[in-house]
Amino acid sequence: MQKKKILLLMLAMVMVVTLLAGCGGQEEAPAEAPADEPGDEVAEEPADTGEELEEINIDIVVGFGAGGSNDMSARYLAEALREFGVNADVINMPGGMGTEAAYHVSTQAPDSHMFMWAHPLIMLFEPATGDRGFTIDDFEPAGLLASPTFALASKADAPWDDMESLIEYIRENPGEVVLGGQGEGNMMHFIAELILDPNELDYTYVGLGGGADVALNLTGGHVDLGHMSLAAARPLHEDGDLSVLVNTQILVDRDPLMPDIPNIEEFGIDAKEPHPLGLWAPKGAPQELIDRVSNAVEQASQSETLIQNYQDIGIIAHYLNPEEQWEFFMDVQDDMLPRFVEWVEAFED
Questions:
Q1: Model pTM?
Q2: For 150-247, which CATH class?
Q3: In the prediction, which pLDDT does 283 show?
């Protein structure tokens, strides 16, 4: 019992000395951590600056009306960006296949916090066929995210079941097959002829009003093939009203929306469609603004909600940083644009 009392007394004295040392006076140097044993792994903790990013406000300008895939993809992005401190207002400015909106953004002050939501059709193909008041060099890339997928679909009771048997059928039955596309003399027509080269295959191309018109004519038996969005084709494919043969997605080979559908490139055909959408700021926009927005876009690209929302409208969420975005557009400009310009000139003659 006596020994126990002595031990308790000593413990109490140690606690008092410790408390006194913590209330003032010179601080003792902290004890050094024991040296790591060979082979031990030390986990590095991320630095915590204690600072939160200040919220910013931006405008995203869409060159088409409300309700279309361009508009919806921008609005889904705007929703996702709010989680990362970027408050984005979507402004619709339809006209000139998106070029009027692009011209407007190109004339804004570099620090206007205004961004164009645009794909190569607006930034490259339209300016290449006439003066639109701007070129891609009037902009700064700020992150690419949305890539719509298009497809070549066939009527339900066709005597072919894939691209190889379709091409063989056209060769054996010249002039019989009719392909319905979205307009004439435009990029969609150009892509359709990349898929099925009329210089090698004898078929008839018919320019229709748009994706809905293509679907209506294809399921109604008025055309044999249709060039349309994968999102529009999928439910009709599942109901047996048509058959999707290939997708023409440029950033990935297989679209998660219909992973069993092969990419056009798998048949040795160079016809991937350059539709990816990204943000573009006026030339000279502050680098810190570009970085802030592009980093938020990258974070948004990992949002399961955004990924699902995009998939529901036939778009793949695939992030490219500003440098990769610029390189992608330059590849399109160097490879596909000269062929398109040559094709347009021949079409107009």
A1: 0.81
A2: alpha beta
A3: 98
